[in-house]
Amino acid sequence: MADNKKSLHVKTGDRVIVTAGKDKGKTGNIKKSIPSESKVVVEGVNMITKATKANPAYGIQGGLIKKEAPIDSSNVMIVCPSCEKPTRIKHAVVDGKKVRVCKKCGEQLDV
Fold first, then answer.
1. Are residues 57 and 33 in the same domain?
2. Where are the beta strands (DSSP E) in 3-108?
3. Which of 31, 67, 76, 86 keeps 20 to 30 A from 8, CA to CA?
4. Domain check: are 87 and 106 in the same one?
5. Same-domain status, 9 and 49
6. Do both 4 and 46 map to the same domain?
7. Is pLDDT of 13 > 70?
């Protein structure tokens, strides 16, 4: 228990496809990653309806709001920008830096 730091295979801004759950097959960009919980928030995926109470002091209008909920990072797969296919990633060292590489076409994902 010396190191509690977790890492994800995807980063904020990556284009991903959902591989499991009710939104299987949908694609979107990652808006937020939560490494401590191994979860990500993907644009337009896993939409929930949240009821909010009006608060006139802050100008907040009440009603139903649709927003994205986090999904587990194991349920998304990165889409390679060059070959446009869902792929796993491998790590390689280029110029002394660790970078993510597409398993299918070998292109570098970190630019």
1. yes
2. 15-18, 27-34, 39-42, 47-52, 63-68, 71-72, 76-79, 86-87, 89-94, 97-102
3. 67
4. yes
5. yes
6. yes
7. yes
Q: What is the mean pLDDT of residues 75-98?
A: 93
| Cβ partners under 8 Å of residue 24, min gap 6 | 18
Clarify whether residues 11 and 23 are in a common domain.
yes
Digit-coded pLDDT (tens) for 21-77: 999 999 999 999 999 999 999 999 999 999 999 999 999 899 999 999 999 999 999
Residues 6+ apart with CB under 8 A from 1: none
CA distance 61 to 83: 45
Same domain, 67 and 22: yes
Which residues 6+ apart lie within 8 Å of 85 measured at CB?
Answer: 79, 104, 105
